Amino acid sequence: MNPLLDTLKPYPFARLRAALKDIPAPAGIAPVPLHIGEPKHPAPKIITDALTAALSGLEKYSMTNGLPELRQACANWAKRRYDGLQLDPETEILPVLGSREALFSFTQVVLDPTSDGPKPIVISPNPFYQVYEGATLLGGGEIYFTNNRPPRFTPDWKNIPEDIWQRTKMVFICSPDNPSGSVMQLDEWAELFAMQDRYGFVIASDECYSEIYFQGRKPIGCLQAAAQLGRSNKGIVMFTSLSKRSNVPGLRSGFVAGDAALLHAFSLYRTYHGSAMSLPIQYASIAAWNDEEHVIENRRLYQEKFDKVLPILQQAFDVRLPEASFYIWLPVPDGDDLAFARNLWQKAAIQVLPGRFFARDTPQGNPGKGYVRIALVADIETCVKAAETIVSLYRGS
Known about the structure:
Strand order of the largest sheet: 2-9-8-7-6-3-4-5
Distance between the termini: 49 Å
Shape: globular
CATH superfamily of the largest domain: Type I PLP-dependent aspartate aminotransferase-like (Major domain)
Number of helices: 14
Radius of gyration: 21 Å
CATH architecture of the largest domain: 3-Layer(aba) Sandwich
Helix content: 25-40%
């Protein structure tokens, strides 16, 4: 067995199950799962129709790089979405089986586990999406966490030691951030690009929540920021997905874009890895990237939930509308996020994710402690009722 498997840590949801296993939920109350960020809005008909119309494609093998029409649809979407961003669909776009799969496998391409000397370092925000850590460890690297700073929970680049930067091969960015919903601004991108110029690392930008935003404030993407700052996309790769944008997490479809040399190497890896997207999924993806009406409706539904849920929670908690994403990063007044989550489960069968499970302990502390993540993915009635229950339980405790 690969000994690096022993370095992996339990996923946050496994930790939550362990924390709740000996606590019975109230009898007769159905669980209210607000801990997992799985979209629940219906899959758009334009996508399901395209999928079923292409089922004969199951009889054929597909190419790793995907159909030219799919790569062009991705390039067209990026141009519309990111203010005229120009990407070459032949060399700067690669379809992938969802952003999670791509984030993991791309890390294996970037890291060199055969090099002599200290392990290569990958820097991750903290709290973080756990795939960043698992990909790094299984790639033979070392993960370094930089704590996100409240109130916006953005990475603290200035406090990373010089010796860490010198060994850094890649930096993960999550913008919009999971779990806080914060968005990297242009000046923050400029700061990171300056560090990249100095130390030569790769930037892997996870942007799977980019289309869940409010009040017309579109999150800026890494490639868009580079273009606005007069930079090339050398050393930069963006990861995006249809899962959140189009409510099709089961489709397992997204694309990566950026540095052509990095994508060429990534394509080679994926050819051996067997990561080609089936033809029906490709045609469904073309339909999805070419349509914005369902995305606009999706945002409207999330906005409606926030409009109804936030005023309720604000009766008892210091909580705000996130800059993007469908998460509420709720500060727990007494600071004990784990006790808060256990209490919600025991008294109301409501599941939320303790922030400490979404982060790692560092010398500066665990930045997730004192927060819980609430995913507003259920229907609006369920979300409103859960918010009312949370406020009632907190006030009654």
